[in-house]
Design goal:
Blueprint lengths: L7 H11 L4 H8 L3 H9 L6 H10 L4 H10 L17 H13 L5 E4 L5 E4 L21 H6 L11 H19 L2 H11 L22 E5 L2 E11 L6 H5 L1 E7 L2 H11 L1
Antiparallel strand pairs: 1-2, 1-5, 3-4, 4-5
Helix pairs in contact: 1-3, 2-3, 8-9
């Protein structure tokens, strides 16, 4: 799909349908008439720049897609996209590094919208033992690294459960952002061995409410649960898409073992 040639009305309609909203429901939510919305979607009326931004906000469109919507209507984009290694991003990058360091001695990493590794704290090597060098060549995709049979795939004790968790998250992300590259990544990951459900006899922990990552190591099985951090005040595309994944100890053994290993 070429977002720059698709009519703006069609883009609005697709995003409304992606959010599973009828014209009437969305018009009420956006505080405009259903007739006006219909005219915008069919191209009978040309939306103003402010109207497009208003509708995009109500549809919770990612900043990248809001820019595409504006371009389709003939307006200039309003959201910047700053390279992480540019001088303009230096202060924001320091904030990312500060957040990552705050999780030590436990691993934490920052990824972009396609799950490529952007930055990590000093504890990340805990996950990298024995992984072939070819899987660590940049750009490193952390989902490929975690599920690949030569990556962490053969060390994850609850691989079926963890894979199912990953695929659920990816599906939600694809529905939210309509990202074709993520859809291709899912196809690749699904081809790796490991299934998409817990192995027979596997007993879920935490009442089935949290999916742990159970990693087999020479020191024993380490159990982590993940937390996700986003920059809620970001107004730049790059930083709005940045996600920090932290791996916190799921039991006392993991907490003590990791602290000893990182000492």
């Amino acid at each position: 799909m070429n977002m720059h040639t698709q009519p703006v009305g069609e883009m609005l309609r697709e995003w409304r349908q992606r959010r599973r909203l009828s014209q009437l429901a969305f018009a009420c939510d956006a505080e405009i008439s259903a007739r006006h919305l219909s005219f915008l979607e069919t191209g009978r009326s040309k939306p103003s720049r402010d109207m497009l931004l208003h509708l995009a906000e109500r549809l919770e469109m990612p900043f990248r897609e809001r820019n595409a919507l504006l371009l389709a209507a003939g307006y200039a984009p309003v959201y910047s996209e700053t390279r992480l290694d540019s001088p303009d991003a230096a202060a924001a990058r320091r904030a990312v590094d500060l957040v990552l360091a705050s999780y030590e001695p436990f691993p934490a990493l920052a990824v972009d919208r396609h799950w490529n590794l952007v930055a990590a704290n000093a504890a990340l090597p805990l996950f990298l033992t024995g992984i072939p060098e070819e899987l660590l060549q940049p750009p490193v995709n952390v989902l490929r690294l975690s599920l690949h049979p030569q990556g962490l795939g053969n060390r994850i004790e609850n691989l079926g459960e963890w894979r199912a968790h990953i695929f659920d998250r990816l599906q939600q992300q694809i529905e939210l952002a309509n990202d074709e590259e993520l859809a291709e990544l899912v196809k690749e990951l699904e081809a790796y061995p490991g299934g998409k459900k817990p192995s027979e006899g596997y007993k879920s922990e935490y009442g089935g409410l949290i999916v742990p990552l159970k990693l087999k190591t020479d020191a024993g099985t380490l159990s982590f649960f993940t937390t996700t951090t986003v920059f809620g005040t970001a107004v730049d595309i790059t930083f709005s898409e940045l996600v920090i994944e932290s791996f916190m100890p799921g039991d006392a053994f993991t907490a003590e073992t990791v602290r000893e290993l990182m000492a």
